[in-house]
């Protein structure tokens, strides 16, 4: 017959509780963004399009991004279709110009920011020239 004088369980439990907790978090999405054109020219009152594609790790392909465009010349507006694509997908940037838009040249910066608790952003630029209507 055996008699148990003590147990190792309480000591093991104390060691587990005293150990620092390992941080378990998903790594942030890593991706790049590409534009189909590096430059574009449009007449006042016209439009131009630029295809936006992404390259991402397979684990990040379902992550969505919010797109924006800055540096637009006066009278030019930007629309994204879709505005919040997945990294496995793409989006089309449509730039439209008012007929009264003045002739101008500008550098448009397109920015993508992941929609997550740890947002990651990237950007790409292209040159835009608006000619008189």
Descriptive notes:
The protein has 133 residues and is mainly beta. The chain has a single domain, classed as Immunoglobulins (Immunoglobulin-like, Sandwich), CATH 2.60.40.10. The chain contains one helix and eight strands, in the order αββββββββ. The strands form two sheets. Strands 1-3-6-5 form a four-stranded antiparallel beta sheet, with no helix packed on it. β5 and β6 form a beta hairpin. The longest helix is centred in the first third of the chain and has 10 residues. It is elongated.
CATH architecture field: Sandwich
Strand portion: over 45%
Structural class: mainly beta
Estimate the global geometry from the Cα principal axes. elongated
Task: Quickly describe the structure.
The protein has 133 residues and is mostly beta strands. It has a single domain, classed as Sandwich (Immunoglobulin-like), CATH 2.60.40. Helix content is 8%, strand content 47%.
Topology:
Layout: H1 9-18, E1 31-35, E2 39-43, E3 47-56, E4 65-70, E5 76-81, E6 90-97, E7 104-114, E8 121-131
Parallel strand pairs: 2-8
Antiparallel strand pairs: 1-3, 3-6, 4-7, 5-6, 7-8
Features:
133 residues, mainly beta, 4-stranded mixed β-sheet, disordered N terminus, 8 strands
């Amino acid at each position: 017959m055996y008699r148990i004088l003590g147990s190792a369980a309480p000591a093991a439990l104390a060691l587990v509780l005293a150990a620092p907790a390992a941080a378990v978090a998903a790594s942030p999405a890593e991706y790049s963004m590409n534009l189909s054109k590096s430059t574009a020219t449009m007449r006042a009152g016209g439009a131009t399009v630029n295809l936006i594609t992404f390259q991402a790790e397979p684990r990040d392909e379902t992550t969505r991004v919010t797109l924006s465009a800055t540096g637009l010349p006066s009278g030019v507006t930007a629309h994204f279709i879709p505005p919040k694509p997945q990294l496995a997908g793409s989006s089309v940037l449509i730039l439209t110009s008012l007929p009264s838009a003045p002739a101008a040249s500008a550098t448009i910066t397109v920015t993508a920011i992941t929609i997550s608790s740890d947002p990651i952003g990237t950007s790409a630029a292209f040159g835009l020239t608006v000619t008189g209507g």
